[in-house]
Amino acid sequence: MYPFIFISIALHLVSFLCIVLLFLKQTKGTEVREEIAVSMEVYIEQLEEENDRLLKEVKSYVDKRENQLDTRLRVIEQARAPEVEEATKPVIIQHPSAHNERNQKAVQLHQQGFSVADIARILNCGIGEVELIVNLHGRSEQR
Prior knowledge:
Blueprint: H1 2-88, H2 101-111, H3 116-123, H4 127-142
Helix pairs in contact: 2-3, 2-4, 3-4
């Protein structure tokens, strides 16, 4: 009977030892989890700080580029100011029936059988202008 008591006590000691080891392991695991949580919080704070710093840098870069673009636009507008003034001047349009060389050449080419598009390309003028010249010349011949 003594051997059974001895075995029972040994088993109780082993189970008690296992319980203590599990408790220590669990508290150690909790400490590791807490340590990981703290490390993650620190890492997140560092990321937020770095993101804020990068955001400020990007904003300053964008502002700098916008200022450069504004400066370039002002320079271009100042350079174009004389062109705009010239563009606002009244344009003198000659009546197509005026006897100038271009009109006469357009009529001659049309009589030779050239298309309006070909005449416009040859004379370096608009198709509508050539059509107008040809139509007005045809009307003047009908009278």
